[in-house]
Amino acid sequence: MRNHTQLPLIILLVGVGLGFGIGALVLLPTPPQRETTPATVLAVSTGKSAPVPIVDSPAPDFTLQALDGGEVGLSQFRGQPVLINFWASWCAPCRAEMPDLVRVYEAHKAEGFVLLGVNLTFQDSLPDVRAFVEAFKMSFPVLLDDTGQVTNDLYRLRGLPLSVFVNRSGIIARLHIGAMTSEQIDQYYEVIEK
């Protein structure tokens, strides 16, 4: 007779073996939680995609057009702590966490902290993006993913907002799906700042 305590492990191993990404979810940090705004869940259909990014793996590199002109690439910030935040103007949880993201960026940008706000432009409109940026006084680079390639194919977005904390070596230190509390943002920043 099979021991019932082994059943969840068996299901987990089958899920990981079939590539459902359950392994990546198991690796997500679980800091002490308080009530937060849930993530906006997206049904994403991708063509050829990279593996799901996980903690302790290199952050997939990308270059995107910035809202204020020019191109910005992740690799140009190697050696600096980086937060990649995927958002959309219509996403209520994105709106809920943005004031705290702006606060952390303003408090630490002089120390070399970089925040890249990747907008899902392929599901958004530029007038709405500009209004959102102005409303929240977002002074960090806002990048436009107008094809969905970075969002869907490289980062395999599973919900909004998605925050990817990348350490100075270009390695993903934390992943967070859904709106973060102010305390979580500060805690995750401390991990990548070292």
Give a brief rundown of this model.
The protein is an alpha/beta fold.
General description of the model:
This protein has 194 residues and is an alpha/beta fold. The chain folds into two domains: 1-27, no CATH class; 31-193, Glutaredoxin. Helix content is 32%, strand content 17%. It has a seven-stranded mixed beta sheet, with helices on one face. A hairpin with a 5-residue loop joins strand 6 and strand 7. Helix 3 (92-108) crosses helix 6. Residues 1-46 have low confidence and may be disordered.
Q: Which fold name corresponds to the CATH topology of the largest domain?
A: Glutaredoxin
Given as residue ranges, the uncertain stretches (5+ residues, pLDDT < 50) are 1-46
Task: Report the sheet with the most strands, covering strand number, pairing sense and barrel closure.
Answer: 7 strands, mixed
Number of domains: 2
Strand order of the largest sheet: 2-1-5-4-3-6-7
User: What is the strand content?
Assistant: 15-25%
Shape by Cα distribution: globular
The helix content is 25-40%
CATH class of the largest domain: Alpha Beta
What is the CATH homology-level superfamily of the largest domain? Glutaredoxin
Give the overall pLDDT as a whole number.
80
How far is it from the N-terminal to the C-terminal residue, by CA?
A: 50 Å
List how many beta strands DSSP finds.
7
Q: Tell me the number of helical segments per DSSP (H or I, 4 or more residues long).
A: 6
